[in-house]
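[job 0412] stage=fold_complex status=start
inputs:
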Amino acid sequence: GENVEQHPSTLSVQEGDSAVIKCTYSDSASNYFPWYKQELGKRPQLIIDIRSNVGEKKDQRIAVTLNKTAKHFSLHITETQPEDSAVYFCAASTYGGFKTIFGAGTRLFVKA
Amino acid sequence: ETGVTQTPRHLVMGMTNKKSLKCEQHLGHNAMYWYKQSAKKPLELMFVYNFKEQTENNSVPSRFSPECPNSSHLFLHLHTLQPEDSALYLCASSQEKGTGELFFGEGSRLTVL
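[job 0412] stage=fold_complex status=done
writing structure:
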């Protein structure tokens, strides 16, 4: 069945450093790849997404890259800040579809 | 009130109890979802409804029974649950065929004794 693998499960960085989270997916029909951030005790919220017709997308300090051939996509956070500390989930789905499959999550710690 | 609202926020129940979780969305969306979040399997899809019709049941045990009376309301009826069902139950909504973004509620923290 569909599966999304996410690594690492925990990531600790110093404030100002970059953080990279990587995901792979199994369903070749997937064409929509969102990333959600969940702060402690809060709901998951979309921070950035990318569609399969685009290789890279950037929004201020966050960027996402997609390699559809290899079925890999990654989240890059530059100049990390303590408020970036949270759990980040990658996901894969078919655009316009209803089944979003999530990765297991990456707990990011940004040390001041 | 805007967004996705879930009640109750916390629920403790025995294995023989019957209880329900409620979700309401004020975003005008037509699709609603139940996700289960636990330490063992974060963000696990349970059910999907589109225009009140169930389109996905991700092999969920029958002790969980969803109900979607209209596009704005979603319920999860619980009966004879097991302690391993203790988790955070998240409701979400999205447009029928829109951006694909899921808008989550704050969740209902369920503890089964």
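[job 0412] summary: The mean pLDDT of chain A is 93.
[job 0412] exit 0
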